[in-house]
Model the fold of this input.
Amino acid sequence: MADRGGFGRGRGTRGRGDRGRGRGRGRGKREDSKEWIPITKLGRLVKEGKIKSLEEIYSFSMRIQEQEIVDTFLSTSLKDEVMKIMPVQKVSAAGQITRFKAFVAVGDHNGHVGLGVKCAKEVATAIRGAITIAKMSIIPVRRGYWGRKNGIPHTVPCKVTGKCGSVRVRLIPAPRGTGLVASPVSKKLLTMAGVEDCYTCTNGHTRTMGNFVKAVFFALEKTYGYLSPDLWAPTKFKNSPYQEHTDFLASTSKIV
Done:
């Protein structure tokens, strides 16, 4: 009776084998310390140290397709914040399907900010996806002065406007010490971008939080679209990292 091959009053393992008592669906132990294996040319150059900063990527307008590229340069200073979570629905043959849409902003409070939007069945999944998208869409924010150029840049360099849907947002330079004259939502995004003093002007249906956040982000994106006289110096053109490190990219073995 002692050895009946698992038959008897004992509950045994219920056929789970070595999986333990977890409920499945990936809720057990997770390996967060996986080594990053880049899958793009830009990722390979960043991991090998061929590219030293994000500004080098921006100067050649290279697309960032892996969040680990941003983590390599801004992992210690990058902060994220959930701007809004809203339920969305669609009608199918089975009835109404409800999902959650998350707006997440990331920034290092020193001239870099990103915005991500993701829709998923669960809130946690939507937030994780939005953080990933926000890191890959991070942009540089140019800062300037109001009046005399003393100290470090503290405001936007010129008047810029962003729009999304019916919302229009205008950012206006402000004197040092003014602070951020803005609504709480736009104030969060401007703070993440490193802007200390700024006036704002809005039009449209700003209660639509998603369009409002996007309009502020698009306005910050335009700060580098204006070429001021201090940037009129002769430009020394050089090869892009893809051309400069052609031999390295060709000699690297394919990832299996």
Q: What stands out?
A: The mean pLDDT is 86.
